[in-house]
Design a protein that fits this description.
This protein is mainly alpha-helical. The protein contains twelve helices and no strands.
Length: 306
């Protein structure tokens, strides 16, 4: 005779099926899954979680980067056509493109070349000595202690405010534009270089000394490679500042250049030409930063793997 389990009576389980004496079989509860069904559902769920998106995250970011400016231009065009924006101060992008095509076949290339040559010469005059002095400040505490108060005091002076003094010293020619750009670039690159060299782990310098590296070898093989990422950050800032001061200097004393084009457009109230000058400077800045990224990837290949 098969005995009834007290637990089954208490819990309301289903009656036990007949079988040998002492054998008990509990029927599966309602809603329970068989192993096959459970395995099938888990497999479906896992396949749904591992489904890959159509575009990778990097591809999506690149598409958004390319489409965002066009979306802004379309919004601008729509606001002008709807007369929400005043056409006198915010001309439609379509009219700016027409003016750009006219200037591109006449005077715009010469303005671009003149401005780029001024910015490049002034940038080199300021950046090269700044890197050398910054490395010395980072490696030699005595040099850093002597120059840091002077650099801190001069860096705080707005460079635009010394433009009249620079023009008094160098005149109204090209030298004054080179000088004002070089002064601004010098401090940006100097501070970044000194900070980058000073933050190099001392263990690398100690290893160089243990292997008999002199000061020149330490400079070229340890200090400069270790500080290059920070130096490039200062170079980017310096190049951006050079474009700013270039336009300011060309507005004050120049007969050609993008700054002169913008200032002349303001005087004659040709707003489309003014926007052409502004957009050209923006495109030059974007392209120059892209070239700096390529140069950094070539000089610092280990940064691409980080």
């Amino acid at each position: 005779m098969i005995q009834k389990s007290g637990n089954s009576q208490r819990t309301g389980a289903l009656p036990q099926s007949p079988g040998p004496v002492g054998a008990r079989f509990i029927a599966p509860a309602a809603g329970a899954l068989s192993p096959t069904t459970h395995h099938r559902q888990v497999k479906v769920r896992t396949g749904r979680d591992n489904r890959r998106p159509l575009l990778s995250r990097q591809a999506t970011e690149r598409i958004v980067t390319l489409l965002a400016p066009f979306a802004l231009l379309l919004l601008w065009e729509g606001l002008v056509q709807a007369r929400i924006l005043d056409r006198r101060f915010f001309p439609a992008p379509s009219s700016i493109v027409g003016t750009f095509m006219q200037l591109a076949s006449t005077t715009l290339p010469s303005h671009i070349m003149i401005s780029l040559s001024r910015a490049a010469i002034g940038f080199l005059i300021g950046a090269v000595p700044a890197i050398l002095v910054g490395v010395l400040m980072g490696l030699m505490p005595i040099v850093r202690a002597a120059l840091q108060p002077i650099v801190g005091a001069l860096f705080a002076i707005p460079k635009v405010s010394i433009l009249p003094l620079v023009m008094l010293i160098f005149g109204l020619g090209e030298q004054s534009k080179w000088a004002i750009i070089a002064v601004a670039v010098f401090f940006q690159v100097l501070i970044s270089t000194a900070a980058g060299v000073a933050n190099i782990d001392r263990i690398y310098l100690d290893v160089g000394r243990n292997f008999g590296a002199g000061r020149l070898a330490t400079l070229w093989t340890i200090a400069l490679p270790g500080a290059l990422p920070v130096i490039f950050a200062g170079i980017r800032l310096g190049w951006g500042v050079s474009l700013l001061l270039l336009v300011t200097a060309e507005m004050v004393a120049a007969k050609a250049g993008l700054g002169f084009l913008i200032w002349q457009s303001w005087q004659t109230f040709t707003i489309e030409e003014m926007y052409v000058g502004l957009v050209t400077i923006a495109v030059l800045g974007m392209l120059s930063f892209w070239l700096l990224d390529l140069l950094e990837g070539w000089l610092i290949p280990w940064r691409r793997s980080q």
